[in-house]
Amino acid sequence: MAEIDLTGAPKIDVEVAYALPNKQELIVISVQKGTTAIAAVLASGMISKYPEININEAKMGIFSKPLDGKHLPLPADYQLEDKDRIEIYRPLLLDPKQARLLRAQKKTEQEKAKGKKKEKKKKKSKV
Q1: Distance (Å, rounded) from C-alpha 83 to C-alpha 69?
Q2: Buried-most residue among 36, 37, 82, 87 (CB within 10 A)?
Q3: What is the band of 91 on the pLDDT scale with cuts at 50, 70, 90?
Q4: Residues 67/37, Cβ–Cβ less than 8 Å
Q5: Are 80 and 31 in contact (CB under 8 A)?
Q6: Where does residue 66 fall: left (phi above 0), alpha (psi -120 to 50 degrees), or beta otherwise?
Q7: Does residue 7 surpass a pLDDT of 80?
Q8: Domain carrying residue 56
Q9: Full 3-state SS string of the chain
């Protein structure tokens, strides 16, 4: 249910989410209708709780849709709607293409190691 603040502007409830490798922080706040995503993140206190978030460079989205100026407006321009979830994304530690390459190399190495073990077993059984 939308509240109304003292200025008469309707208030809406939104969530601000930030995921760390080992936990997710989710804060529910009430803001005035028309509040931007970046203003809600600042109002949530998430930046003071997690100082590693650089509000000027952090990528954000609404329900996994990026606030990138293409799919949705930029965080400073996107006006929130009731029940929106603003997601603050951490920078990638590793490029996805590089991660796939490393996994493939590791799998190849494991398969080679298994092949060598089988060869040793065959040699032992012949002796």
Answers
A1: 21
A2: 37
A3: confident
A4: yes
A5: yes
A6: beta
A7: no
A8: 3-89
A9: CCEECCCCCEEEEEEEEEECCCCEEEEEEEEECCCEHHHHHHHHCHHHHCCCCCCCCCEEEECCEECCCCCCCCCCCCECCCCCEEEEECCCCCCHHHHHHHHHHHHHHHHHHHHHHHHHHHHHHHC
Amino acid at 120: K
Both structure tokens of 56: 């000027």
pTM metric for this prediction:
0.69
Report the C-alpha gap between 46 and 91 in whole angstroms. 16
- In this structure, the answer to whether residues 78 and 108 fall within a common structural domain is no
Is residue 75 within 8 A of residue 60, CB to CB? The reply is yes
